[in-house]
């Protein structure tokens, strides 16, 4: 049975640059024209008959014709069959590419190809069945006309197949027309088999007896009619083939005329313009779409199975089964059975799904293929097997063309910016199947040559019988099993197919031009065109307003883009974002792992979510509970559900506090879909592609980094990438710290057949200590439920150096939260310092702070007031007994948890680790001698707080006042304050020291460019929380200090781990091997 199709590369949207001047349709009429009449469908279906009639005749009879009528050597016959099929495969994508470059005509873009190729195709087909008088020219003759016919037939069938996507925009109509087409095409195979078989069957080629024993076998089986009949010449057989080809040529012409007269090529109302692309880029495009690649590979093997059966069945019936006079009747039964069961398979795939139809339809034939080679020759049983084979062939014939539109639709949904490439998908499918079939036919014919096939022999050697059994039974069965194995990973199920259909219908409704407002006019010229344009704009405006709802006034795509991207640090995929906004609303999601308690920095994404909603976006909020567990078990499994409930209440309270309507949002819990079979399989598939290096790199700034990382942390980035697909969004929004996860998603999702998404990133708000605000670092954050006095205390300690706008968490909070929410910010201060001032532009506020016109204390006090207003509604909500209980259960206190879960936790509180030290960068802003001690200095050290701290140090004998003035140093800030000679020392300045004569001492040096207040960590201990105050009796610093040394590279270390800030390592100038005090 012949298969093949192509489709044009570009959708009709490319051609909609002008409107027909004499035709403006009403909405009702436009709607009616979307539906195809039965006559339209029949005329369309008839157009597929020529391809199947000629293909079936060539497929079943060309091999035996070349061998027994044209009298070619099997080797040359195999060359002709292989080259012809391979050439046919190459012409499909080539013609598809050329068709896509063809300009539109009054008859369309496909019809001219169909009509102009028909007469030449008919002539070349007729000449294939003519035997030239000179034997030496036979091989060249058949090669030329076989390849020429395949080329011209492709020029007919590729444009014809493209009409599948353009006869209607409705998927239901296309599927119905496809069923009509498949029925007629299978009927065409019956016609091709019947005409060729019955006409030629009346004049069987005379055979040559091969041995007396073989003749005796034929006599015993009652097949004397198969032996050469003297009164029948070879010339009559050749004439019969010519007559059959003439009849088929006439049918070919009639079908082409019917198609041209009964089908109108329609323009699709799409505003998305496809780009012209090169041939090889087209290959990369289609094979990069996972569902298409799996569909092609699966049907490649199942189609090969039936092509092997088709190409060798005539020889098998004639020689292995011994039905030389009946094989054409057996073929006719196969084709009739296939034709009659096409409607059944159409119903079956609609009722049970297309994947189920694939499995059932292609496996039905397997037991019969095995039976036919194991049983003894029996004509009745052979007819029964022929009927069963026809049932399976019908399924294998219908399903590829029913499923290819689903793949094209899936590609359109996942790549809305890349449309109009239908022809590439169709033509490359045919390319692969035809090229492979050419190889299979060439090899099968060559196999017969090696087995000792005797041209025109009445019987064949035993080796030929065995070869034919393999070619029609063992090989097809194996190929079917391979194809079905590939189909197990085909991702488009009925749910996904229906979802794609819904999305495309919504897109078409948004793009359809002014249906309901247009009027049936017969006017011509520019007046009509202007009227159409006016009505179209009016219609699009009303759709846009309807979708915008109550979230704000109607916005242009540019305004939406500016609102969506304002205050973002980076957007990956800006052009794609602009294209989507021109066509429809953006679908975006923001996810949060339900780990520690949310803090005030969460107002940054909340304020952006407010922007998204104002721009009309469809927003999903994901509570990523599974991610929270995978991230070094930040959320224990038994607390996952409680943490999700807490996060849901807090996030909703935050959104309500800034005036965001919750009814416009969709809330999803990760484990609602992340534990499904499909998601889990995708995790495994992704795990087989992502390297350990890429996974570790992607999670470096998000997943907790420890000395011995868990496997779960490596899975985390891949799951976040897959969420984009399973939430069905266009974009993911997150902090810039997730950039590496976003780039991992862009790299690997296309390998699974999923599209790249847009990624939008907000900047990370610095914490109160100058580093990233983190749930695990208590002093860097303000919790949403912190009391007013706690907020006041934390803000007082916050890093906010006068004039310093870098790494200033207080200033950043104003920029990224308060200004976007209120469009202004008020500085509250005493009248003697300038009084209150309201800023309506953040840039003005930043400028005044940089120029020290705003004191840090006034900025902190004003932020405190604004924060209390934001947090008051949240605190009040959580005063209810239910939410108080939820908070205590989701975040049990450490002491209670230690008793209930693990008694050893109490020991961990006394664990001597460097993260308990509050080490900071300080700047000495003043230094003088201690009034009561000649060996002591009094230093005023700025550590990022509102007032410098007083530090007493015994450095007089080692470092001059000039060296200390304005120097950056490292300060231990959580020692208990202690009076030294009557003056309280509020911190300790750390120095390197080497004993000896003389003793040498040098203050430690932070990295160049460090700012006062920046945290100093020991590498590997960056996530711990310092003690509020080190208890002198515990001797915590003294125990840690024992292992604090200077390396041979002059780097400060603890237990050979470097002391670091975010800018680099802590060092000293010269004291290698020294101790640190």
From TrEMBL:
GO biological process: carbohydrate transport; lipid transport across blood-brain barrier; lysophospholipid translocation; response to stress; tyrosyl-tRNA aminoacylation
A GO CC term assigned to this protein in UniProt: plasma membrane
Gene Ontology MF term list: ATP binding; fatty acid transmembrane transporter activity; lysophospholipid:sodium symporter activity; tRNA binding; tyrosine-tRNA ligase activity
General function of this protein: Sodium-dependent lysophosphatidylcholine (LPC) symporter, which plays an essential role for blood-brain barrier formation and function. Specifically expressed in endothelium of the blood-brain barrier of micro-vessels and transports LPC into the brain. Transport of LPC is essential because it constitutes the major mechanism by which docosahexaenoic acid (DHA), an omega-3 fatty acid that is essential for normal brain growth and cognitive function, enters the brain. Transports LPC carrying long-chain fatty acids such LPC oleate and LPC palmitate with a minimum acyl chain length of 14 carbons.
Catalysed reactions, as listed in the record: tRNA(Tyr) + L-tyrosine + ATP = L-tyrosyl-tRNA(Tyr) + AMP + diphosphate + H(+); a 1-acyl-sn-glycero-3-phosphocholine(in) + Na(+)(in) = a 1-acyl-sn-glycero-3-phosphocholine(out) + Na(+)(out); 1-(9Z-octadecenoyl)-sn-glycero-3-phosphocholine(in) + Na(+)(in) = 1-(9Z-octadecenoyl)-sn-glycero-3-phosphocholine(out) + Na(+)(out); 1-(4Z,7Z,10Z,13Z,16Z,19Z-docosahexaenoyl)-sn-glycero-3-phosphocholine(in) + Na(+)(in) = 1-(4Z,7Z,10Z,13Z,16Z,19Z-docosahexaenoyl)-sn-glycero-3-phosphocholine(out) + Na(+)(out)
Domain TRNA-binding: 913-1017
Localization (cell): Cell membrane; Cytoplasm; Endoplasmic reticulum membrane; Nucleus
Statement: the UniProt record of this protein carries the keyword Iron-sulfur: no
TM regions (residue ranges): 42-66, 110-132, 139-160, 240-263, 283-309, 329-349, 356-374, 380-402, 470-492
Extent of the signal sequence: none
The protein's Enzyme Commission number: 6.1.1.1
InterPro entries named in the record: aa-tRNA-synth_Ic, MFS_2, MFS_trans_sf, NA-bd_OB-fold, Rossmann-like_a/b/a_fold, tRNA-bd_dom, Tyr-tRNA-ligase
Main location: membrane
Family: Belongs to the class-I aminoacyl-tRNA synthetase family. Belongs to the major facilitator superfamily.
Domain of life from the UniProt record: Eukaryota
The protein, known as: Tyrosine--tRNA ligase
Membrane topology designation: Multi-pass membrane protein
Organism: Ameiurus melas (Black bullhead)
Keywords: Aminoacyl-tRNA synthetase, ATP-binding, Cell membrane, Cytoplasm, Disulfide bond, Endoplasmic reticulum, Glycoprotein, Ligase, Lipid transport, Membrane, Nucleotide-binding, Nucleus, Protein biosynthesis, RNA-binding, Symport, Transmembrane, Transmembrane helix, Transport, tRNA-binding
């Amino acid at each position: 049975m012949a298969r093949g199709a192509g489709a044009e590369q570009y959708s009709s949207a490319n051609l909609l640059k002008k409107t027909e001047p004499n035709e403006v349709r009403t909405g009702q009429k436009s709607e009616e024209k979307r539906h195809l009449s039965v006559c339209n469908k029949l005329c369309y279906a008839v157009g597929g008959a020529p391809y199947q009639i000629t293909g079936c005749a060539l497929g079943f009879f060309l091999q035996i014709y070349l061998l027994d009528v044209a009298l070619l050597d099997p080797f040359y016959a195999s060359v002709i069959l292989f080259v012809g099929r391979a050439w046919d495969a190459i012409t499909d994508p080539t013609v598809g590419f050329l068709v896509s470059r063809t300009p539109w005509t009054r008859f369309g873009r496909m019809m001219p190809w169909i009509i102009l190729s028909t007469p030449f195709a008919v002539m070349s087909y007729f000449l294939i069945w003519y035997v030239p008088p000179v034997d030496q020219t036979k091989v060249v003759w058949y090669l030329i006309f076989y390849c020429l016919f395949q080329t011209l037939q492709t020029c007919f069938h590729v444009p014809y197949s493209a009409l599948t996507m353009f006869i209607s925009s409705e998927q239901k109509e296309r599927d119905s027309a496809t069923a009509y087409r498949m029925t007629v095409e299978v009927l065409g195979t019956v016609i091709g088999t019947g005409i060729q078989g019955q006409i030629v069957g009346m004049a069987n080629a005379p055979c040559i007896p091969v041995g007396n024993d073989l003749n005796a076998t034929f006599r015993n089986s009652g097949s004397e009619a198969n032996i050469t009949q003297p009164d029948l010449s070879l010339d009559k057989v050749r004439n019969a083939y010519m007559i059959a080809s003439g009849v088929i040529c006439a049918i070919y012409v009639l079908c082409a005329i019917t198609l041209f007269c009964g089908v109108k090529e329609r323009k699709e109302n799409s505003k998305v313009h496809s780009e012209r692309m090169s041939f090889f880029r087209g290959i990369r495009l289609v094979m990069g779409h996972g569902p298409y690649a799996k569909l092609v590979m699966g049907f490649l093997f199942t189609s090969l199975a039936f092509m092997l059966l088709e190409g060798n069945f005539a020889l098998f019936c004639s020689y292995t089964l011994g039905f030389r006079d009946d094989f054409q009747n057996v073929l006719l039964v196969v084709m009739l059975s296939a034709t009659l069961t096409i409607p059944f398979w159409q119903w079956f795939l609609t009722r049970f799904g297309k994947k189920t139809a694939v499995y059932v339809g292609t496996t039905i034939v397997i037991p019969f293929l095995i039976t036919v080679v194991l049983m003894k020759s029996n004509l009745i049983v052979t007819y029964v097997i022929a009927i069963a084979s026809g049932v399976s062939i019908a399924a294998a014939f219908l399903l590829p063309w029913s499923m290819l539109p689903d793949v094209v639709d899936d590609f359109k949904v996942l790549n809305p910016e890349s449309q109009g490439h239908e022809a590439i998908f169709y033509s490359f499918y045919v390319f692969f199947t035809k090229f492979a079939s050419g190889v299979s036919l060439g090899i099968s014919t060559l196999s017969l040559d090696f087995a000792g096939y005797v041209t025109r022999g009445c019987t064949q050697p035993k080796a030929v019988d065995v070869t034919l059994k393999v070619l029609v039974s063992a090989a097809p069965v194996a190929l079917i099993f391979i194809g079905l194995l590939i189909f197990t990973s085909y991702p488009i199920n009925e749910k996904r197919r229906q979802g794609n259909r819904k999305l495309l219908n919504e897109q078409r409704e948004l793009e359809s031009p002014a249906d309901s407002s247009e009027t049936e006019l017969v006017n011509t010229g520019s007046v009509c065109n202007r009227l159409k344009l006016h009505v179209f704009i009016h219609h699009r405006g009303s759709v846009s307003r309807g979708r915008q709802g109550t979230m704000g006034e109607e916005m242009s795509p540019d305004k939406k883009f500016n609102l969506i991207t304002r205050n973002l640090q980076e957007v990956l995929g800006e052009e794609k974002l602009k294209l989507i906004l021109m066509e429809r609303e953006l679908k975006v999601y923001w996810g949060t792992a339900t780990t520690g308690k949310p803090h005030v920095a969460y107002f940054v994404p909340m304020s952006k979510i407010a922007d998204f909603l104002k721009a009309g976006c469809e927003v999903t909020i994901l509570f990523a509970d599974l991610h929270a567990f995978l991230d070094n078990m930040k959320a224990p499994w038994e607390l996952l559900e409680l943490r999700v409930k807490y996060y849901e209440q807090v996030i909703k309270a935050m959104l309500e506090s800034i005036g965001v309507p919750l009814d416009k949002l969709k809330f999803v819990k990760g484990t609602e879909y992340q534990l499904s079979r499909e998601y889990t399989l995708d995790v495994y598939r992704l795990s087989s592609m992502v390297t350990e290096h890429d996974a570790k790199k992607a999670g470096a700034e998000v997943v907790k980094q420890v000395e011995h990382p868990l496997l779960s942390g490596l899975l985390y980035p891949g799951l976040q990438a897959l969420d984009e697909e399973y939430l069905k969004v266009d974009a993911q929004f997150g902090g810039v710290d997730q950039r590496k996860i976003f780039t991992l998603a862009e790299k690997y999702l296309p390998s699974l057949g999923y599209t790249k998404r847009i990624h939008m990133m907000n900047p990370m708000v610095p914490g109160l200590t100058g580093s990233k605000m983190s749930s695990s670092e208590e002093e860097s954050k303000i919790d949403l439920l912190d009391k007013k006095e706690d907020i006041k205390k934390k803000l007082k300690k916050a890093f906010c150096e006068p004039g310093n706008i870098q790494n200033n968490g207080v200033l950043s909070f104003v920029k990224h939260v308060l200004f976007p929410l209120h469009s202004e910010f008020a500085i509250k201060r005493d009248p003697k310092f300038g009084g209150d001032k309201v800023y309506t532009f953040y840039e003005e506020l930043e400028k005044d702070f940089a120029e020290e016109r705003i004191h840090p204390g006034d900025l902190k006090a004003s932020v405190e007031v604004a924060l209390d207003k934001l947090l008051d509604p949240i605190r009040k909500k959580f005063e209810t007994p239910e939410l108080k209980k939820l908070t205590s259960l989701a975040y049990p206190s450490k002491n209670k948890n230690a008793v209930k879960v693990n008694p050893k936790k109490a020991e961990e509180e006394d664990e001597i680790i460097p993260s308990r030290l509050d080490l900071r960068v300080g700047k000495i802003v003043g230094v003088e001698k201690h009034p009561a001690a000649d060996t002591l200095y009094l230093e005023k050290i700025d550590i990022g707080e509102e007032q410098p701290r007083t530090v007493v140090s015994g450095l007089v004998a080692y470092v001059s006042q000039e060296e200390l003035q304005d120097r950056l140093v490292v300060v231990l800030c959580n020692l208990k304050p202690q009076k030294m000679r009557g003056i309280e020392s509020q911190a300790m300045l750390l120095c390197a020291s080497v004993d000896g004569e003389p003793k040498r001492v040098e203050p430690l040096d932070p990295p160049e460019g460090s700012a006062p207040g920046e945290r100093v960590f020991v590498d590997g201990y960056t996530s711990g929380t310092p003690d509020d105050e080190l208890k002198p009796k515990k001797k915590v610093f003294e125990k840690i200090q024992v292992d604090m040394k200077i390396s041979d590279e002059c780097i400060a270390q603890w237990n050979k781990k470097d002391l670091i800030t975010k800018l680099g390592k802590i060092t000293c100038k010269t004291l290698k091997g020294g101790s640190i005090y």
